[in-house]
Design a protein that fits this description.
This protein has 564 residues and is of the alpha/beta class. The protein folds into three domains: 170 residues, 3-Layer(aba) Sandwich (Rossmann fold); 172 residues, Rossmann fold, CATH 3.40.50; 104 residues, GMP Synthetase, Chain A, domain 3 (2-Layer Sandwich). The protein is 29% helix and 26% strand. It is built from 17 helices and 27 strands. The strands form five sheets. Strands 3-2-11-10-12-13-14-15-16 form a nine-stranded mixed sheet. A hairpin with a 2-residue loop joins β20 and β21. α3 crosses α4 and α3 crosses α7. The longest helix is centred in the first third of the chain and has 17 residues. The radius of gyration is 25 Å and the shape is globular.
């Protein structure tokens, strides 16, 4: 027989269960080891395994085994220590994907220093030096590629700013990631051949800082997120970034930049999955997709980490790729809401396709197996160790089914931002990361992403979710791509503007797009249909593959102003 108190307790439990909160406990004990500890264990177990394979435009390949990687990284670490680098010091690293980048980063970690992922070199040495000084780096490992002026500027700086002692308190010292002719700067390639190797390296402790990643900047200015060895070693979702859904020890293709947390080298070293890579800028700059596919075939990659714009290029060349007769087992993508169009690679290009959701700060949070009947925005399963709540403006959880802001905790999240501003600090509330995303936790436990908080458009009293409008537009036959942005309006606060890329070979006009949107979304008064429709030849994108809404807003405003 139920007592009055038990009825009250059950009612309270029922009400609490209806709040937008979900917690999936860890299903394994924490591994109390550093990245260097785990790497050394894998060297002992798999010394001759090719752990990285670099591919070049001329078709040549360059592999490195666990044993060789340890030898060369140890020599470089010894050099850095001899130059005065100590545990806890900051050492920057920047440049395109390369074997030397891998050696350099591992060497930094072996010294006990913190690897600072600096932005890839663009512009003058003076600008790069400003970034270095802001980051407080005592040394920088970099690849200026073939920029002779940049190298000469470094040499001039070094000659006029010599260090006063091995503490390097006066100025940073520079190490080239690869040997460049006629340069007298030290380089990782030469150190790997000439500098003596030693096992007499500092002990690296699990809770010490390991790597500082730079965020994509999709929610504002890029931030520098700092992670410990312990967090990176225990990232439960790391296997999705190396083998997706396949068996351990295979090979996967990923040309994501090493500087991104999702493209970082650490996961391959820890998971013991061979990574096949090339310079990621080739794909971003619309490189020959058949060249990429030939790499995947020749290296027998069972899985691939492909950004949405690469999937788009594959779909444009699907007939050619299918004729090769090769098919991957799985493909992983993410970085933005995946729409039905991208699932067109399932079956012919890969057996299965997955989308992951997360951020630099919290890592991967969810994964979802995709198909042509998927619900757009459904985030799928939550990784063990993740907590999620959907909150209102007061930061309290909403009732399930209501749209609000995502707050997330993971055991492998950042320990903080480097050189944090007050705005940066506000992003972390009582240990919860404000994702800057909005969505819904349904009563049945399904988590739906609607988009970024800054993608919500307030037109009068109506809330328009730009992601839902984009899904409508891109589902129209003949539309290649679309992004929906807010245009300031004195009367209704914001207006909805669709920036659309049409297939020049398809029988479609912008008027067709306008009519179809009104049929599906309603009008532009009480419905979600855009007020403005602008045609573009292509959309501006960030290096992550996400739409660059800031640039698209500027371009749209310029077009609208010129039309008035």
């Amino acid at each position: 027989m139920l007592t009055f108190h038990s009825l009250i307790f059950q009612s309270f439990f029922y009400i609490m269960g209806e709040l937008s909160f979900v917690d999936k406990p860890l299903d394994h004990p924490i591994k109390y080891k550093s990245i260097v500890d785990v790497f050394n264990e894998n060297v002992c177990e798999f010394p001759e395994k090719e752990i990285f394979i670099q591919l070049f435009p001329d078709g040549s390949r360059r592999p490195i085994t666990f044993r060789d990687l340890k030898l060369r990284a140890t020599r470089t670490a010894s050099f850095l220590l001899d130059q005065g680098i100590q545990a806890g010091d900051r050492v920057g690293i920047t440049g395109p994907n390369s074997i030397e980048w891998i050696i350099g980063e591992l060497a930094i970690l072996m010294t006990g220093a913190v690897s600072i992922h600096l932005p890839i070199i663009q512009g003058t040495f003076k600008k790069t030096l400003d970034d270095i000084k802001i980051s407080g780096c005592k040394s920088v490992l970099l690849d200026p590629e073939n920029d002779r002026t940049f190298i000469e500027d470094i040499e001039d700086y070094v000659s006029f700013n010599p260090p006063t002692d091995k503490n390097r308190s006066s100025s940073p010292f520079f190490v080239l990631l690869r040997k460049i002719e006629k340069s007298n700067l030290p380089d990782v390639e030469s150190l790997g051949k000439e500098y003596p190797a030693t096992d007499d390296l500092p002990r690296v402790f699990p809770e010490s800082s390991a790597i500082v990643f730079t965020t994509s900047g999709s929610t504002g200015n890029p931030k520098m997120a700092e992670f410990t060895h312990l967090a990176l070693v225990n990232t439960k979702s790391a296997y999705m970034l190396t083998r997706v859904a396949e068996e351990r020890g295979g090979s996967y293709f990923s040309d994501w930049p090493f500087s991104w947390i999702g493209g970082n080298i650490i996961y391959a070293l820890i998971q013991v999955d061979t990574r096949v890579f090339r310079d990621g800028r080739i794909s971003a700059q619309r490189g020959d997709i058949m060249e990429l596919w030939n790499i995947i075939m020749e290296e027998q990659c069972t899985s691939g980490l492909l950004l949405p714009f690469t999937i788009y290029d594959i779909l444009q060349n699907k007939e050619k790729i299918v004729k090769t007769g090769y098919r991957m087992k799985s493909v992983l993508t993410g970085g933005q809401i995946i729409k039905h169009k991208e699932t067109g690679i399932i079956g012919d290009i890969c057996e299965s396709m997955y989308m992951v959701y997360g951020s630099t700060e919290v890592g991967l949070v969810t994964y979802c197996r995709l198909d042509s009947n998927m619900e757009v925005g459904h985030l799928g399963s939550i990784f063990p160790g993740v907590q999620i709540k959907v909150c209102g403006e007061d930061m309290n959880p909403l009732v399930r089914g209501e749209m609000g802001r995502f707050f997330i905790k993971t055991p492998w999240m950042l320990q903080g931002y480097l050189n944090a501003t007050e705005d940066h600090k506000k992003a972390i509330v009582d240990g919860w990361m404000n994702m800057g995303d909005v969505g819904i936790l349904k009563s049945d436990g399904r988590l739906l992403l609607k988009g970024k908080l800054n993608s919500i458009i307030k037109r009068g009293t109506l809330i328009v979710v730009s992601g839902e409008v984009e899904e409508c537009i891109t589902s129209i036959a003949g539309v290649k791509d679309a992004v929906v942005i807010a245009i300031p309006d004195e009367r209704v606060y914001e207006e909805v503007c669709a920036c659309v890329v049409l297939d020049k070979n398809a029988p479609i006009t912008m008027e067709n797009v306008r009519q179809r949107c009104r049929e599906i979304l309603g009008d532009n008064i009480i419905g979600q249909a855009p007020t403005f429709y602008l045609e573009f030849d292509s959309l501006s994108i960030l290096p992550t593959g996400k739409p660059d809404k800031k640039k698209m807003t500027e371009a749209a405003m310029a077009k609208l102003n010129s039309n008035n």
